[in-house]
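FAQ
Q: What does a multi-component entry look like?
A: The components come first, one per line:
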Amino acid sequence: MDKWDTGLERAGRFLVTMSELAQSLNLSTSTVSRALTRPEMVAPETLERVLAAVKANGYRLNGIAQSLRTRKTKSVGLIVSDIMNPFYSAIVRAVEGVAASNGYSVIVCNADENAEKEDEALWVLAERQVAGIIHAATGANLETLRALRGRGIAIVCFDRISGLEDTDAALVDNVEGARAATRHLLALGHRLVATIAGPDRLTTGRDRLRGFRDILEEEGLVVDEAYIERGDFRRESAYAAATRLLSLPVPPTALFVANNEMLIGALDAIRERGVTIPSELSIVSFDDVPWAGYVEPPLTVVAQPTEQIGRTAAELLFRRLEGDDAPKTVVLMPVLRERGSTAPPGADAREEVMRRD
Amino acid sequence: MDKWDTGLERAGRFLVTMSELAQSLNLSTSTVSRALTRPEMVAPETLERVLAAVKANGYRLNGIAQSLRTRKTKSVGLIVSDIMNPFYSAIVRAVEGVAASNGYSVIVCNADENAEKEDEALWVLAERQVAGIIHAATGANLETLRALRGRGIAIVCFDRISGLEDTDAALVDNVEGARAATRHLLALGHRLVATIAGPDRLTTGRDRLRGFRDILEEEGLVVDEAYIERGDFRRESAYAAATRLLSLPVPPTALFVANNEMLIGALDAIRERGVTIPSELSIVSFDDVPWAGYVEPPLTVVAQPTEQIGRTAAELLFRRLEGDDAPKTVVLMPVLRERGSTAPPGADAREEVMRRD
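Then the predicted structure of the entire assembly, as C-alpha cells:
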C-alpha cells in the first residue's frame, strides 16, 4: 500500500467517513477511494477536488490517526449513577484494577440517577468504541441496551438490575442487608422504627424497603406507613424526609436510611432539630462511607463489599469479551457494622404506635 | 449508493478499518472496497471471502454505526487525579453542568496521580474523538499534550499547572491558602507548627509548602525541617508522616495538612496514638470535605471554590472550542473556614524548638 492508502484508512476511522467525503463531492465512494489509494487511475481534476475536500473535511493523512493506530488502546466504559457518592468512586477504582490487568483503559460517564443522561452516556460510550459497558442501571433505556448489545458491545450491570435479558450482574443482597439493619434496631428494643427508602424504580430501592418490612412483619409489628418515607438516594430528598419524620406527633426512635448520600441529608435534618444520636434517635444506613468512623458518634452501617462488587462486574465483562456468553449473576453479601449511632431507645420511647399484634 | 456502501462506510469507522480487513484477506484495500460497494464488479469467490471476513471481523453492515452517525454526540474529556477524592467528584459535576449547556457529554478518566496513567488517558480520550481535554496535570507528559494540541484538541488544566505553553488554566491561589492556614495557627499562639506537604513535582504541593514557610519566616520563626513532612496527597503517606511527627521528641502542637485525603491518613495516626484534637494538637487542612462538619470536632479547613474551579475550566475549554485562542489563566481564592479542630495550644506546649530568631 502506498502512503495515501495508509493515511486514508487510518484517518477514515478517526475523523469523517469516506462516504461523507464522497457525498460532499457528489462522487461515488469508490472514486474517492481510488483517488486516495491509486491516484494515477483518476482524472487529475477529480484528484484535485478529492484532495481539496480531504483537507477541508479534516482528514489527516499522516496525522493523529496514524499515531493513534499504532497505540491501539482498548477501553471499556463505566456508567456510575452519582459521581459524588464515594460508593461509585470505589467502584471506578476496582474496575480500573481489573481492566488494567487485562490491558484495557476505563472511561467513566456519570448518569446522575437520570434515565436520559444514562441513555446519552450509553451512546457516547458506544460511539467511542468501548468493547463493553458496565453500568449501574437507572432501570430505563432497555431498548438502547438491547441495541448496543445486539451490535457486539458486552453489557454488565452492577448495584441494580437493568432488566436486560440474559445480562450479567454484580449485585449485593439488598433484602438481606436491610433485614440485618432492621433486625439490629429491633434487637436493641426499638419498636418505633422508620425508614427513608430509595426509589421504587430501582431494585436497590425496592429490595431495601422489602427487607425492612419483612423483619417488622416477621416480628409481628404493624408497619405504620407514616414511618415509611421515600427518597431518591440524594441528600436533599432525605433531608426533607427526615424533617417530616421528626415532626410526627410520635416521632420514631430508630431510623434505617437506604443509602449513604441520604444519610448525610438525614443527619443534617437531625442536627438542625437538635435531636441527639443515639439517645433520642438511633440511625443505621445502608452502605458504609470512608468517614463513618470519624463522625461522633461513629455510624452503624450495612457495609457493601464495594471493591468486590466492582471487581466482579469487571471480571464478568472480561469473561464476556473472551467469548463466554452464559449469563451470570453474582450476589454478594453486605455486612452490618455496629458502631455508636445505634443504641437501646431512651426511657421516653412511646411504644404505642407501632405495636405487636 | 446501495446498502453495502452505506453500511461499509459507517461500520468502517466504528469497528475495524477496511485495510485491516484487506490485510487479513491478503487482498488490496480497493478490492475489498469494491466488493462491498460494487459487488457486481468482483469475482464471486472473492466476494464470498470478503463477506465472510466482514462477518468474522465484526463489521455490521446495517448496524450500530448507522444509528450512531445520526446521533452525533459531542464530548469533552476530563482527567482527574484521584477519583476517590471528593474534590474531583465535585469538579466532574461542575464540568458536566457547563458541558451539558453547550450540548456536550463528558467522559472521565482517572490518572490516579500517576504520569503513565495520565499519558494513557490522554491518548484514550484523543482516540475517542473528544473535542477537548480538561486535566489535573501530573506534571509530566508535556510531549503528549503538545502532540494532541497540535492535532486540534483543546487542552485546559485545572488545579495544577501542566507546563504546557500557552495553555488555559483554572487554579486556586495555593500560596495564599497555605498562608491563611498557617497565619491562623500562629494567631492562636502556636509556635511548634508542622506540615504534611504534597509532592514537589506538583504546583499544589510546592505552593502550599511555600505559603507555610513564608508565614513562618515573615513571623521570624525558624523552620525546623523535622516538622516538614512530604506526602503524595494520598492517605497512607500522611498516616506515616503524622506518625513520625507525633513520635518526635518534641511533637508539634499544630499541623497543616496539604490536602483532604492526607487529612484522613493524619487523623488515623492521631487517633491511634490517642492524641486529642484540638487540646493536644490543632489541625487544619487544605480543601474542604463534605463531611468536615460531621466530625468531632468539626474540621478547620482552607476551602477551595471547587464548583467554580470546575466551571471555569469548562468555560475556558468551550471558549477555545469557539475559536478564542488567547491563553488565559484564572486564579481563584480559597477561604479559611474556622471550625473546632484548631484552638490555642495546651499549657504544656514546648516552645523551645521552634523559636523566634
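Q: Is there any commentary attached?
A: Sometimes. For this entry: Chain A touches chain B through 66 residues (CB under 8 Å).
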